[in-house]
Amino acid sequence: MRTILLRFGELYLKGNNRNIFESILIENIKKKLEGETFKFSKTFGRYVISDYDEQRESEIVSKLLKVFGLHSLSLAEEVDADYKSIEDAVKKINLGKKTFKVVVKRADKTFPMTSMELASTLGGVVLKANKEASVDVYNPEVEINVDIRLNKKAYIFSSSISCQGGLPLGSAGKGLLLLSGGIDSPVAGYLISKRGLKIEALHFHSYPYTSERAKEKVITLAKRLCHYCDEIKLHVVSFTKVQEAIHMHCAPEFMITIMRRIMMRIAERICKRDGLLTIVTGESLGQVASQTVQSMTVTNSVVKELPVLRPCIAMDKEEIMQVAKNIDTYETSILPYEDCCTVFLPKNPVIKPTIERAEKEEKKLDIESLVEEALQSEEIVFLNGK
Ligand code: ATP
Ligand code: MG
């Protein structure tokens, strides 16, 4: 019977928490495969997907390749763990002229041959069935693996495919991603989800200065992220009044600094209200004026109780773009729609603002009512990858 063997990597490190991590991972796998028929089983250190529709194997594999916490997978033939059945399965492997070696792992020590004996006997079987193939134990082109498991089944497979790695989605709790229409923030969302943080997203729009299509773009980005991040609750908040007030009352070079501080205050409010543990942004050190260490100090200082995570902080734009392409958000991100940050954009934003100066500018505003009013405008959109 054809099966998919799943391996998880880093979970091993988690000591007593391992069971919790595993149960989240298993739940996530089952959820990802919702709508498919399949059987899920556990053997020590592995999961096995079986009894699925073989016509749908590539779709099932592509879904599994988007599950965080899985390390690698192999398409394997499952047979009863007796010599004859194993030999029959190994005989069917078609190697052409390739070099190979057979690697046997025996979790079930009651199997009557040792790993070495079985490997060399099966090596002979493969050579007989593939006249042009040859053995190379040091650097084979194909490694034929035979795993004999405690469930009295043997799994025969010849390659493994790398999965996402990381930690199971949700195992690190839940956070709020500040999602713009740009390239960086979707990548930040993906990267932090890969470390187990489930995300909700917050988008600020400045309608009518930004168009309805700018919002649609963000919805498309969030949907793309859902392929990895499950469903996403998107909070959409109007930033128009805030921007108008800053534009009217504050020094132009402080526009972006004050905007960022107010975004952070709103984000923290939503986090506290909805039980989210952290704020996540797509900032990258030095990329623009608002992303210097000094700017981030001034922005951060309004967030009182939560960590602000910036997964892209040390990445070059090229590296961020590569991830965006891999996760299929790039093409959407580069569509030319305006973001609220580009409205009223000052010519010369401060590169090294200070907290004192930002606070002085903010005295000219009624921050509390601006935050309140923005929160009143909140709309919620529930998204999934479908
Ligand atoms: P991105 O490509 O993610 O837009 P960027 O390099 O264009 O990032 P900025 O526009 O300065 O940088 O934004 C920095 C971060 O602030 C973004 O990564 C995002 O997390 C957040 N942000 C910016 N604009 C918005 C918005 N309209 N709504 C929500 N978050 C935003
Ligand atoms: Mg941007």
Task: Describe the SSE topology.
Elements: E1 2-8, H1 18-32, E2 39-43, E3 46-50, H2 57-64, E4 70-80, H3 83-91, E5 99-106, H4 115-129, E6 134-135, E7 142-148, E8 153-157, E9 161-162, E10 174-178, H5 184-194, E11 198-205, H6 212-229, E12 232-238, H7 240-249, H8 255-274, E13 279-280, H9 293-300, E14 308-309, H10 317-326, H11 330-333, H12 355-362, H13 367-376, E15 379-383
The structure holds adenosine-5'-triphosphate and magnesium ion.
Keywords:
386 residues; alpha/beta; VC0802-like; Rossmann fold; nine-stranded mixed β-sheet; six-stranded mixed β-sheet; 13 helices; 38% helix; 21% strand; binds adenosine-5'-triphosphate; binds magnesium ion
Helix content, binned percent: 25-40%
Global Rg: 27 Å
Small molecules bound: adenosine-5'-triphosphate, magnesium ion
Low-confidence stretches: none
Number of strands: 15
β-strand percent reads: 15-25%
Q: Characterize the largest beta sheet: strand count, sense, and whether it forms a barrel.
A: 9 strands, mixed
Q: What is the name of the CATH architecture of the largest domain?
A: 3-Layer(aba) Sandwich
